[in-house]
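// run 5 | inverse folding | seed 20
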């Protein structure tokens, strides 16, 4: 009789499975569908596992997978917020896969009993901020004995296995180690991509801090880390980056999965395998921009607005998409993900307008907070409109409630649809690019001044 068909592990979870020691007593934290423990049981690598999750829904999914595979007696399902429902005797190999690195570090930090586990190993596969996991391991006297990388569905991932350090083993003291880890020693294209992405993210963060004149100590620290990483970057950048490399780097800074519904991001035209020696950056890809790129022998244009936004049934010779193909130039868009990301369009707009105590404002329409709010010294709407016009070199339309402004929300580009998010956040002024007539009326009805400073100018 053929065994029941269970979904095969993707490359990311196969990488994690390869790090699990044979015979380990496994605890899969945040198991979701329990694909990892079922795979390891089928391969004969483990005899028993605990699969836990914070939600009943994922546990029901896991129960279906386990039952279908015939392992109900060998997989214990457990409701647990991280390691809260575990103790020393439960397992010796704890796996955290598919979570953010910051969350993994927090969950580990909450389990002060963890170092008492005999033959302990911890496997982490962070979806973001791996530096937080590596930093936690070093701070808590763990030794990262192996890291692996893979590429899956256009993204690169790393995973690491750590154990308690032995007497005499000292954690790495290099400032770049939390960011680079063991990646420089891994001969795999994904390791090279991850190093480039990390270096680029550090550069963006350092530049944003320096431009805003904030946190000089953090900026100096990031520059030191970058200098340490430059050796590894130079060593592997003998070949030029490809369109796909740059797409992955942009995706690291502004993940495409955070885009708003109906948006279109990433590589929209061209060959992902093509090498890039010159790149032109713009707001919109027009015929003039394509001519400039061709005159400069640029192989790639990175734009904020997507060159393909609405569904096309016909493409003619005057269409930028046709012109890109004719010139052999690739196009990448970073639109709403770059609006929302840390240090992106809306953060820069808030800083340009001089807001203090900047914070994020969430919206049900966005997967990542897409507005920012901050404070200014109280002033009139007309005075603030004059400041906006001067700072952004913009023509500003606004409405005035007659009351002083002190709490300001901002959104780059066309942010009219987020008006009520700004109102709910307690702002008494809202600055964005485009507003329609009804937005001004609704703002006044709710006691808010709004300012339309232009789509181009706010982005």
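// decoded
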């Amino acid at each position: 009789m053929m065994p029941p068909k269970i979904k095969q592990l993707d490359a990311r979870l196969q990488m994690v499975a390869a790090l699990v020691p044979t015979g380990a007593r496994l605890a899969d934290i945040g198991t979701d569908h329990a694909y990892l423990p079922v795979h390891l049981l089928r391969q004969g690598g483990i005899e028993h596992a605990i699969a836990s999750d914070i939600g009943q829904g994922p546990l029901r999914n896991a129960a279906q997978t386990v039952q279908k595979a015939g392992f109900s007696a060998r997989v214990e399902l457990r409701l647990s917020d991280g390691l809260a429902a575990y103790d020393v005797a439960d397992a010796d190999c704890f796996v955290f896969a598919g979570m953010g690195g910051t969350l993994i570090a927090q969950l580990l930090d909450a389990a002060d009993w963890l170092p008492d586990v005999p033959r302990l190993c911890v496997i982490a596969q962070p979806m973001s901020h791996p530096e937080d996991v590596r930093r936690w391991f070093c701070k808590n006297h763990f030794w990262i004995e192996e890291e692996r990388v893979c590429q899956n569905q256009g993204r690169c991932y790393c995973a690491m296995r750590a154990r308690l350090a032995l007497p005499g083993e000292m954690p790495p003291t290099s400032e770049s180690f939390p960011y680079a880890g063991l990646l420089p020693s891994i001969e795999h294209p994904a390791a090279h991509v991850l190093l480039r992405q990390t270096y680029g993210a550090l550069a963006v963060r350092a530049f944003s801090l320096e431009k805003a004149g904030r946190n000089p100590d953090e900026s100096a620290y990031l520059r030191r880390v970058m200098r340490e990483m430059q050796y590894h970057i130079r060593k592997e950048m003998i070949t030029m980056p490809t369109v796909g490399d740059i797409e992955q780097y942009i995706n690291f800074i502004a993940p495409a999965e955070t885009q708003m519904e109906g948006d279109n991001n990433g590589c929209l035209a061209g060959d992902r395998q093509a090498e890039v020696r010159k790149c032109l950056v713009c707001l919109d890809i027009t015929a003039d921009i394509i001519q400039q790129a061709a005159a400069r022998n640029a192989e790639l244009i990175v734009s904020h607005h997507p060159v393909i936004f609405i569904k096309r049934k016909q493409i003619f010779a005057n269409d930028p998409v046709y012109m890109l193909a004719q010139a052999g130039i690739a196009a990448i868009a970073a639109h709403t993900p770059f609006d929302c990301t840390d240090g992106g369009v809306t953060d820069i707009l808030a800083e340009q307008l001089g807001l203090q105590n900047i914070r994020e404002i969430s919206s049900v329409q966005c997967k990542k907070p897409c507005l920012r709010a901050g404070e200014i010294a109280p002033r009139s709407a007309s005075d603030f409109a004059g400041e906006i016009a001067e700072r952004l070199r913009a023509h500003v339309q606004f409405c005035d409630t007659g009351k002083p402004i002190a709490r300001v929300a901002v959104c780059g580009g066309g942010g009219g649809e987020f008006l009520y998010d700004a109102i709910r956040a307690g702002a008494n002024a809202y600055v964005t690019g485009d507003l329609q007539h009804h937005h001004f009326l609704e703002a006044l009805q709710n006691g808010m001044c709004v300012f339309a400073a232009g789509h181009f100018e706010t982005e």
